[in-house]
Amino acid sequence: MTNKLRPILLAGGSGTRLWPLSTEDMPKQFIPIFREFSLFDLSLQRLNKSSLFKKPIIVTSERYLGLVNNSLLRTGIEAEKIILEPEAKNTSPAITLAVILGMKVNDSENFLVTPSDHYIALNKNFYDSCIIAKSHLKQEGLILLGVKPNNPSTEYGYISTEVKDDKIKRVNGFIEKPNLDKAKILLKKPGIFWNSGMFIFNGRWYLESLKEIDDSFLTTSQKAVDLGITNDKLFSPDEDTFNKFKKKSFDKAFVEKNITISMVNLNAGWSDLGSWASLGALHGDPDSGMTLYNEEDYNRIIKPWGYYETLMELEESKVKLLSVTPGEKISLQKHAYRTEKWFVIQGDAKVTRGDEELNLQPGDTITIEKNQLHRLENDSKNPLKIIEVQTGSYFGEDDIVRVEDTYGRTDLH
User: Fold this and answer.
1) pTM of the prediction?
2) Which residues of 112-122 are buried (b: 16+ CB within 10 A; e: fewer)?
3) pLDDT tens readout for residues 300-328
4) Backbone angles phi, psi at 107, to 5 degrees
5) Measured between alpha carbons, how far is 264 from 367 in angstroms, rounded to an integer?
């Protein structure tokens, strides 16, 4: 029987696309957006299945060690090792150091690489996909977990596979994050999946393949481990050697240069929550358990055109969910003290911005500058929802200058 999988849990990213919710000091994987639990907590709990997984190797930044330890204490999960990167160098160095370190314990180790900031609704389905991958895991080859698209997303890279009903499919190629028109075309094609960023492979095979693809990088990685310092569960790679790494993603440095790649379908309610659009969509799912705000602070403000909810408010920013009823529109207005960025998460938006008239769809974004006339309109038959991220020096409702208003409010704030 194939060995259990050794998880490599990647937790060093800063989630900059979700600013201001996610910051360098508190990136999205550590934010408690599911009541008291974070995405990192949920990832640890998901990997706490001893029949399938060994203890995880966690790769994170030195600055996040306290957050990692808090999660381990909160969830009661024990890590095999915590690798502390002196600085972020993307996923290729992180994964490679973890593999080398894991192979020192077991030179036939099989690994599961998974980000810690993704959301999975159905853990059992995730386990089923891992079991399928593990059962097909020979000593050679890389297995990806792919997700069948349910919308023409521009947020993810795509995988093209052979068109078969087999549980495991051969990968034919990779497609960069497309624009919306190309995403719509891809959605209609068979054998197309989103790349979840989760990989399963044998460690010995990986290191042998990496030696052929980039022997210099492998040699540097080995040196960073050999000269590193172990302190109980903590491992710090040699800083001088580590600093020689260029920032490389695992996909670009290894995956796309490999020819023995297969894919297993992951049908588990997956999202990388990498944008306000995807986060807002999950927020609208009553089964997700997401709490972007404290329940006692929750407040829905009814307006003539629909309603808005304040999701979070900081000194320098404010985030709202706007819902515009079919056939309604907000006033033609401008703001003196704030810039607004809109992320369409549901429905079709008709936007006036200065002299422009634009039609936006889910996944699209637009920025409204200070003192720029703008209007949001829903001329469809379906609800329109957007996430509005405000930045500036003042966010009060009285910073609204209405130039034209369907509801007779031009003299009101």
Assistant:
1) 0.81
2) bbbbbbbbbee
3) 899 999 999 887 777 788 888 899 999 99
4) -80, 5
5) 38
